[in-house]
Amino acid sequence: MKTETSSPAKNVEEYIYSQPEAIRILLEKLRSAIKAAAPKAEEVISYQIPSYKYNGALVHFAAFEKHCSFIVVNKNILKIFEKELRSYKTSGTTIHFTPENPIPAALVQKIVKIRIKENEKRVATKTSPKGKQQTKSSIKSK
Fold first, then answer.
1. Which tens digit of pLDDT belongs to each residue from 71-96?
2. 23 domain-assigned
3. 2 belongs to a structural domain
4. Distance between CA atoms of 135 and 133, rounded to whole angstroms?
5. Which domain holds residue 79?
6. What is the pTM of this model?
7. Into how many domains does the chain fold?
8. Which of 10, 43, 98, 123 is 20 to 30 A away from residue 135, measured at CA?
9. DSSP collapsed to 3 states, the chain
């Protein structure tokens, strides 16, 4: 929970360690689950929050006064995991959670792995200006 006068974090570790202890522990667990599922993802600060990139935006997280957010980028993820997410408030592409109701690491990893596959598929299959789908290999052979 950044204050109005604090400067933006330079990296994810700084962001996490600027939080109160209960939130810091929660975010460290979330970070570990993300990194375990996406070891090749780039960890950055984007829009002043921790973000993970792998062939584009993968997932993000943020801390607020009364909750934390896990942003999954694609709203279809919330539909896929609707049953598992019943005990969480969701909105758009965001799952809200608290120290009292954390997202299980196994669920975080499932979500991240699906997001990796979505990004890989998107990058592998691009639409040409004429509306024809092209794969990376067909683009390289031109």
1. 999 999 999 999 999 999 999 999 99
2. yes
3. no
4. 7
5. 12-140
6. 0.85
7. 1
8. 43
9. CCCCCCCCCCCHHHHHHCCCHHHHHHHHHHHHHHHHHCCCCEEEEECCEEEEECCCEEEEEEECCCCEEEECCCCHHHHHCCCCCCCCEEECCEEEEECCECCCHHHHHHHHHHHHHHHHHHHHEEECCCCCEEEHHHHHCC
